[in-house]
C-alpha cells in the first residue's frame, strides 16, 4: 500500500508529483531543489543551495519518521561539476560516515527554475 508523504517544511510539489511516496517500507523522495519553504523563494549560490536542498530532504524524511541514516540511495544532479567539491563537503556534513548511502552525481544542462543542484533520495525503514 502506498502512502503520500507531504510536509509544509519542504517546498510544495510544483507539478503532478508528490514530495515522497512510502511503499513497503521504502520512501521514495522526489528531487528537491533549493526553494526555501518558508518564503517560496530560491536561495542562490551552490553552498546555500546545497544546504537548502539537504534541509528540504531532511524535512521530508522527518515527516516519514526517518533520518538520513535511513537513506540507501541518493541521486545528485549538478548544473556544473565545478561545484562538486563544495557540494560534496556540505552533503557529507548531513550524513553519518557509518551509513553513507549509495550515490551517483551527474552534470545536467538544465534543472527546474535554472537551479544549480537537485537531489532525490530513497530511504528504507529499519
From TrEMBL:
It comes from the Bacteria. One of its GO terms (molecular function) is deaminase activity. It comes from Chryseobacterium taiwanense. NCBIfam families: Rid family detoxifying hydrolase (TIGR00004). This is DfrA. Belongs to the RutC family. One of its GO terms (cellular component) is cytosol. CDD domains: YjgF_YER057c_UK114_family. InterPro entries: RidA (IPR006056), RutC-like_sf (IPR035959), YjgF/YER057c/UK114 (IPR006175).
